[in-house]
Amino acid sequence: MKTITTHAHPRIGLLGNPSDLYRGRVLGFTFGGFMAQVHLDPCESIELHGSEGVLRCSPQPPFAAGLDPRAGRGGTELLAAAVKRLVAAYPELETEARGFSLRVETDIPRQAGLSGSSGIIVAALRALGRHFGVDLDPEALALVAQEAETEELGLVAGPQDRVLQAHRGLLSMDFSDSKPVVQVLDPDLLPPLLLAWDPEPGQSSGDVHASVFARWEAGDELVREVMRELPQLVVEGAAALQGGDHSRLAALMDRNFELRRSIFNISPRDQELIALGRDYGAGAKLCGSGGSAVFMHPDPAALSRLAQALNQAGWSGLFPQVVGGES
What we know:
By secondary structure, the chain is α+β, with helices and mostly antiparallel strands. The protein has nine helices and 13 strands.
């Protein structure tokens, strides 16, 4: 059996996030330039290799019981969560011993709000599905990946990251029902965008979301009002894209950030990043939970000047291009 290699790309939340955790809507896309790769090889045991060590267990049924995701580090916790959740979804996989090793490689900036951790899980599930002969369509892949993070690792996380990385492309996603409604949009509708991120890792996204989610559950009216308005930005943003109204899109991005700032603690570093973009007249918002931002300006030349200023201020950046296609 040859090595199975699969991958997943990072994502940018363009509008609506983080309302996906609250049955809202998100407009976002996966982009190139980085990827999480997982390599699966046949093995006599089960071995999960990360940057800080290896988790091992016997392949004899029930092998998933021998894996503790929360005992892993450096990516092994993500691989173990993927294995355990796939087996939970497809218990028949434990009826035979089929050892394997998983190795992860990723260059997605760490803890920068670009969905690097879920990218590892999605890539691992793609490899495991091929190994076990399980046909994981995008809907099933996103669901199992989501449960790997929330059920196996105990993280507070909405579904947008996994849905984006499972389907890939430019997507408008409606999470108001139990089954996400996904609309694929033409990437050519997007104006030029600029991504900037902090080279130094930030805070875990689960930690960022936990306190606000607790306020939501307690009935906090400000949190609930914000989560009612954020999905409407996606509806308006999709219409702005279809109509080529890029100035309106930039204004919606600004509004998205202000709504987020009204209920989340935004780090001084992230506030500096947004402020610098606005100094150049760009619409600006965080890509995820912090550590990166996406900028839009109707004038591409102004966006290029902003890129130079960000680089001089110590931020990393690129002009993201949407990627889709099969795994």
